[in-house]
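Re: that chain you flagged

S.,

Sorry for the slow reply, it's been a week of failed gels. I finally had a moment to sit down with the sequence you sent. For the record, here it is as I used it:
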Amino acid sequence: MLVDEQMISKQQGPAAELFQSGLKQLREGAFADARDSFLRFVQDNPDTTFTDNAFFWQGISYEGLGQLD
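Prediction finished late last night. Pasting the structure tokens below so you have them in one place:
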């Protein structure tokens, strides 16, 4: 998570803030909120350099929720 936090911290704007929020929520164990943040990020920003990372963290959020299917 640290690498993504460092990379996104160099960006500005609502998309970067949403991604950062998702990472913070993950760190705090708010997996449903993190999942929703990353889902919204992907919907709003489908073709950025962070989109694949958002899909990954969304999967980690599901894992935290025990939803492994």
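What I noticed first: The chain is about 70% helix and 0% strand.

Talk soon,
D.
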